[in-house]
Amino acid sequence: MEKIEVKEKELREDGAYVFHHPPKFLWEKGVLPKMSWTDYTLYVHVPFCRDICTFCTFERKKLEKGSLSQFMNSVIKEIDIVLQKSDFSKSKPRAVYLGGGTASLLSVSDLEILINKIKTSFNIGDEIEFTLECEPGTKQAADFKKLVKIGVNRVSIGFQAFQNEILKSMNRMHTIEQSIKMFGDARDAGIENMHIDLMFGLPGQVMSDWKFSIDQAIILAPTHFSLYPLIVFESELLDRKMTNKPELEMPPSEVIHQMREYAQQQLALHGYEQYSLTEYCKKGYECKYVISNWNGSDYLGFGPAAYSRNKNYLWENHVLHHLYNSDVANGNLPFNKMFKMNTSDICIRDIAMGICLLDVPLKPILNKVGVLDPIVKQRLLELEREGHIILSDQSIKLRKTSQRYATHVMKQIIGDS
């Protein structure tokens, strides 16, 4: 098929992928029907941090005295409320992820209470992928030995960079030495499935910094990597900081592209397979939780600002903690807004977000919606003519050369670029 040339300057190269569709401004107050949960993943959002990182846009707040005890009381009650209002008789979760914020700020005793509550409530065995997201410096060797005994079998550590000056510029509360120590402590405790987060395109970061971070991380031999391009959202903390400090410049887009390419090459050389725009793993270590976020699966979220999906329903818990705590205390589901998708919404969402996994199988989507939405089909044909995707009756594949333009591709699919 003839390829249509598109000027690169017109294509979005940033990492602001489509994280939600339909867009949040269309979500409304409403009443959720009784849900039946079978094949799904489970997420708990622990929305507290020791300090606020300049790059972060997730729901989070600085840790205050009493915050964690209030959170524990509320999230345990929320689990009980959900159990009462939904059907879990055929519950078969694929993975559990404790994230944030900073999930590792919870004490080991609180984590034991929470994990035992989850395992007994949702029919979870020891074989299920169970991830704890950790900030370096918040857990020690003895803690990981206890965590293994209560069911944690995967640890995600937010290294972000191997340069202390870069970590400091991002308001990270840890050093690279603490990152390396935490990694070793967790692995020595018997946790084989180890994950490392790294970021590229950071203000002040040069190519040699990125190469060093990648090379040193590979030496540690984790089973899984996430490599995130920095996203600077208007009026967020980092945007304000860069406005006040002009010397904090992001690398040029071409350098950011070279950073991505270097990581892809080096990780491939060392046996890591790329299975999403940001994820790389040793064979067989794909993160089930990550995949479920992008492939149209159901997922159940607990905690302030947590998201959930069940079939054609989407909803979000209250972001404001006092509203979340109040609803739970009164025995109500603490969700803020919801959206009931029609078949067109599902088709667009599952294809656009599925692009993040590089290869979108069409059969699961067609099983939900019947036939491909003709408007979506036309948009896909246009993207194929532009040379961004490979379209067949079985799947939609994002070309490797267009990974840098994934945001453009996603936005084109939803008709919002």
From TrEMBL:
Residues 34-273 form the Radical SAM core domain. SUPFAM superfamilies: Radical SAM enzymes. Its cofactor is [4Fe-4S] cluster. One of its GO terms (molecular function) is 4 iron, 4 sulfur cluster binding. One of its GO terms (biological process) is porphyrin-containing compound biosynthetic process. Keywords: 4Fe-4S, Chaperone, Cytoplasm, Heme, Iron, Iron-sulfur, Metal-binding, S-adenosyl-L-methionine. One of its GO terms (cellular component) is cytoplasm. It is found in: Cytoplasm. Its main location: cytoplasm. Pfam families: Radical_SAM (PF04055). Probably acts as a heme chaperone, transferring heme to an unknown acceptor. Binds one molecule of heme per monomer, possibly covalently. Binds 1 [4Fe-4S] cluster. The cluster is coordinated with 3 cysteines and an exchangeable S-adenosyl-L-methionine. PANTHER family: COPROPORPHYRINIGEN III OXIDASE, RADICAL S-ADENOSYL METHIONINE DOMAIN-CONTAINING PROTEIN 1, MITOCHONDRIAL. Belongs to the anaerobic coproporphyrinogen-III oxidase family. HemW subfamily. This is Heme chaperone HemW. It comes from Hyunsoonleella pacifica.
